[in-house]
Design goal:
Two copies of one chain form a homodimer.
Chain A lengths: L2 E2 L2 H9 L6 H27 L10 H10 L2 H21 L4 E3 L6 E9 L2 E5 L8 H14 L3 E5 L6 H9 L4 E3 L3 H10 L9 E3 L4 H9 L5 E2 L7 E6 L5 H12 L6 E6 L4 H13 L5 H8 L3 E4 L3 H11 L3 E5 L3 H7 L5 E4 L5 H6 L25 E9 L1 H17 L3 H11 L2
Parallel strand pairs in A: 1-11, 4-5, 4-7, 5-6, 7-8, 9-10, 9-12, 10-11, 12-13
Antiparallel strand pairs in A: 2-3, 3-14
Helix pairs in contact in A: 2-7, 2-8, 3-6, 4-5, 4-6, 5-6, 7-8, 9-10, 9-11, 15-16
Chain lengths: ~425, ~425
């Protein structure tokens, strides 16, 4: 159950083709495209075993949700919201910035928010109020004016409360690929959005990828992962607890311990056995441990090299001197530095975002952040002096490219 | 030829379905996937009417290209390179930044470059050395170590010189959808890249969209466009010159003048007639003028509202007081402020990027910039004090979500 891995084993598992659900998803997309809201009601009945009579969650339903949630949880959500907001606020770009003016030319960048975005919040095995915060806060900080949320029926009261805390505009009880299709294509009830963010199962991810010509997405999402770089100073009980936490997400979740200490894996294995008994989700954990394991390496540099090839969603650094490791790492969704930084902190309340690229995608994609909800326009303010300063270069290059009218549009301004 | 438009006419033209080339492109992708380099040689022969014996441009071929290019053009390219570099350098994010430490928690963002990217540089109607600079410079500034370029054979000497000036790693003479397939899937000669950027025709764009599960792209590209917001102070000759410059790109290019001055369109039309005669590409220009025209509006606010609905690739602001217009605009690829700022300046040498979203995509996408070539990892450094500060919130939310092992991974650290 807890065994040595090779890097190749991990990488080939990561690259394994996902279950092909594209046929089923295409049928769902076609149904939503053809019959709109009616298709959504029917698909909810088929997949969620509920016949709904409306899709949009009402104010009354949100009030009821508050009544059913422990006030201590509401307080915790509010505290988490505040910490997530503070960190994302630091990522915000200036609305408009300019270079110094030189030669009569001032250049700048103007940042503006998207107008309408959609988030998908899974239901099923667990409620994910934290995901609502992770998707809504960066959009709010960016200044997006309409933020909608789809989640499978029946909506979990925690999800509704989190959506209210986070200022979500509208919540719809629609799940799966049909939710993605509705937000991408629009129905009578759900107007289309510009971008869809948030995690989801294979159907949701397939729908996001297949509808990418109609809507933008954050990035493809797969099962959650952790890599832990540890040396002889790491505590086996902490490492084991982190591996169990990762494993309880999903039977397909995966953990890898990368260590310079050949004795550590056995100690961690013992702690895993001890802790797994108490874990309510131990069946899921045992399945996830099946694709988890450890790599023993010679040096910390080797550990970093292996981790960079894996490009883990979560990277935990539990070594004597973690900051030089942080400096050298290139590929990771979110990095947890030191033995007192379990991934659970970033999942809920440190302030960083937990919507992160998986399956090696951290080589290419950033985790969800404020810039997913903005776009930029470049700006140039050019005076008569400015066109004189660059007109000659513009005209030479335009002429070389055979674009004579481009050259004329510069020359006509310099000849007056 | 130069007529009044309605906003609806423009928007429906923008949204018109592109010619469906997906069948032809899928065949090309399949050929490259199946036969690699051999397919590339065959497709070059079929589409470019050249039987190549190698794909990678040699050092000798680059030296020869320098000999055939006017030194004044090399100098202009170098000057443009320098201005583009300076502006893109301003966009660069810090490699690693941290928030202030509070409660034992320090949060940060680490920015790292992609490793290997590809650019597509069109051949055909004209040479595009400027596009080489626009794609390569932001990648270089970001710190990308391998930047490859595909361009149809025979490679234009200007393109080769620009690639050398811009520090492109390898240049391959492969054009069209087959170039995109080669960079996405890899062949013996061309190793796959992480992201493909740059403009292209309908085949290139279709290939980029179709291969998006295998490679990331910048954004979909279509025919070039300009909107010009002008009042009674605008000079009709300048406006006409800008419209002609836009029109010479492509028979499908489009220009719209949005003006509060009902007399301006006729004057602009007269200047267009006068200037078009001298333009070597007048046939292309006349075709492009067929889908161009003007909107007369009551107020500058109305002009801004129309422009934001169009979300033009290029927005030129030629009014008495342009800065308040700049402040209010939300959707535009690149904004040219004042009557001495023709789009040609941004195409070549002001320093801004000319690879920009078209067809309304500026509502959602930014033009090419340094952040297209980087990704970020969030960081948290948490001390014992830190886990004490947020552990309670983490454990409450984890328990509420049913993720008990997450709660344990926090609690185990607080109980020692």
């Amino acid at each position: 159950m807890w065994t040595a891995l090779t890097l190749d084993t991990w990488l080939s598992r990561q690259q394994a083709t996902l279950t092909d659900v594209s046929g089923a998803v295409q049928n769902i997309i076609d149904e939503v495209a053809g019959r709109g809201d009616e298709a959504l009601f029917d698909l909810c009945e088929r997949f969620d075993k509920i016949r709904l009579d409306h899709l949009r969650v009402s104010e009354d339903e949100i009030d009821e949700a508050y009544e059913s949630v422990d006030p201590e949880i509401v307080e915790a959500l509010t505290e988490a919201f505040s910490r997530i907001w503070t960190f994302h606020e630091l990522q915000r770009q200036k609305d408009l910035w300019f270079s110094g003016t030189e030669d009569g030319i001032t250049l700048g960048v103007k940042t503006t928010p998207l107008e309408r975005i959609g988030m998908y919040v899974p239901g099923g095995r667990a409620a994910y109020p934290s995901t609502v915060l992770m998707c809504a806060v960066p959009a709010q900080v960016a200044g997006v004016s309409e933020i909608i949320c789809c989640t499978p029926p029946p909506a979990n009261p925690l999800t509704l409360v989190a959506a209210d805390v986070a200022g979500v505009t509208d919540i719809y009880t629609v799940g799966g690929a049909q939710a993605i299709a509705a937000m991408a294509l629009g129905t009578d009830t759900i107007r289309p959005v510009q971008k869809i963010v948030g995690p989801g199962n294979a159907y949701v991810t397939a729908a996001k990828m297949m509808l990418r010509g109609r809507v933008e997405i954050d990035f493809p999402a797969g099962p959650s992962e952790i890599a832990i770089i540890a040396d002889h100073t790491a505590r086996p009980d902490f490492v084991a607890a982190d591996i169990l936490a990762q494993s309880e997400h999903d039977p397909q979740a995966a953990s890898v311990l990368i260590t310079t200490d050949p004795g550590l894996p056995e100690q961690v294995g013992d702690w895993i056995e001890r802790l797994v008994e108490e874990a309510p989700r131990h069946e899921i954990i045992r399945q996830a441990l099946g694709q988890s394991g450890y790599l023993i390496v010679d040096t910390i540099a080797d550990a970093i090299a292996s981790s960079d090839k894996i490009a883990p969603e979560h990277l935990s650094i539990q070594v004597q001197d973690p900051l030089p490791v942080l400096q050298k790492v290139r590929n990771a969704g979110s990095i947890f530095v030191g033995q007192y930084a379990p991934v659970a902190c970033g999942d809920y309340a440190s302030g960083t975002n937990h919507v992160l690229p998986t399956a090696g995608n951290a080589k290419l994609y950033s985790g969800l952040n404020v810039s997913h909800f903005t776009k930029t326009s470049t700006v140039q303010i050019i005076s008569r002096e400015g066109i004189d300063a660059i007109g000659d270069v513009v005209e030479r290059l335009a002429t070389a490219e055979g674009l004579h009218a481009h050259a004329i549009s510069s020359r006509i301004r310099r000849e007056i």
